[in-house]
Amino acid sequence: MGVGDHTEPSRRNRHDQPRRRRHRRQRQPVPLKRFFLYYLFAMVASVGAAVLFILIASPLGILGWLFVHLYAGRSLNRTILPHFRWHILSNTIADVARLKFSALFFWPFQYLIFLIQVWAVREL
Q: Do 115 and 32 form a contact (C-beta atoms < 8 A)?
């Protein structure tokens, strides 16, 4: 091998190598439409459960609606939030727990505002 001879296998161009697979943490961004569909499905389930349990008119109906409401919030927390990275300054246990609990109980408002903000950042 002479000076300037770049035919060594260790010095090949990166362009000759096959494309590397993405690491599992480097996911492609999920389309925002899917998140809005999750949100709409949870809203329909919660409102449908509220109407159904109001028609039943029993104390167990309120508990049933509360269960559906909290389960929808938990499902949204587990399907939407893992797709976003936390800022290093707000990645404390207290901040993450506060956001997750507020999103669990007040998810109809929290996720609507959150999804509109994400849409504005991505699209505008």
A: yes
- Condensed to tens digits (0 to 9), the pLDDT of residues 16-51 reads 666 666 555 556 677 889 999 999 999 999 999 989
Q: How far apart are CA 76 and CA 88, in angstroms?
A: 23
pTM, to two decimals: 0.69
Q: What is the DSSP string of 65-121?
A: HHHHHHHHHHHHHHHHGGGSPPPGGG-SHHHHHHHHHHHHHSHHHHHHHHHHHHHHH
Residue 21 backbone class (left: φ over 0; alpha: ψ -120 to 50; beta: rest):
beta
**Are 77 and 104 contacting, i.e. CB atoms less than 8 angstroms apart?**
yes
